[in-house]
């Protein structure tokens, strides 16, 4: 069994543009979620730092999203002018429910 994967896409998003990130993120989540998707969160630090944390069943789920017709939801950070998102892909070693 493949270990779960967490992706974290983060970017500096000026407060005046934060609403655009939320709108795009919510619109993407209103669509069907890809196979292997477990959950996602859009979070911020109370200032300009925004991040989308997504948990998937394994590497095959990430490969399926990349090969699919739609861009991953986390790319909504990059659709906001003035942002330069970074991506981290992490393997879940241990978790609680």
Strand order of the largest sheet: 2-3-1-4
Query: How many domains make up the coordinates?
Result: 1
Assign an overall shape.
globular
Order of helices and strands, N to C?
A: EHEEHE
The number of helical segments is 2
Query: How would a textbook summarize the main sheet?
Result: 4 strands, antiparallel
Distance between the termini: 18 Å
Give your account of this protein's structure:
This protein has a single domain (5-91), classed as Alpha-Beta Plaits (2-Layer Sandwich), CATH 3.30.70. 25% of the residues lie in helices and 31% in strands. The protein has two helices and four strands. It has helices at 15-29, 59-67; strands at 5-12, 37-44, 49-56, 86-91. It is globular and about 40 Å long.
Which structural traits does this protein have?
97 residues, Alpha-Beta Plaits, 25% helix, single chain
Write a brief caption for the model.
The protein is an alpha+beta fold and 97 residues long. The protein has helices at 15-29, 59-67, and strands at residues 5-12, 37-44, 49-56, 86-91.
Question: How do the helices and strands line up, and which of them pair or pack?
Answer:
Elements: E1 5-12, H1 15-29, E2 37-44, E3 49-56, H2 59-67, E4 86-91
Antiparallel strand pairs: 1-3, 1-4, 2-3
């Amino acid at each position: 069994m493949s270990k779960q994967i967490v992706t974290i896409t983060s970017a500096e998003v000026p407060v005046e543009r934060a609403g655009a990130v939320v709108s795009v993120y919510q619109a993407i989540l209103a669509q069907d979620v890809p196979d292997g998707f477990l959950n996602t969160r859009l979070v911020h630090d109370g200032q300009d730092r925004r991040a989308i944390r997504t948990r998937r069943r394994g590497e095959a789920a990430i490969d399926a999203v990349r090969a699919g017709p739609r861009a991953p939801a986390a790319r909504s950070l990059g659709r906001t002018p003035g942002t330069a998102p970074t991506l981290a892909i992490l393997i879940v070693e241990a978790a609680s429910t």
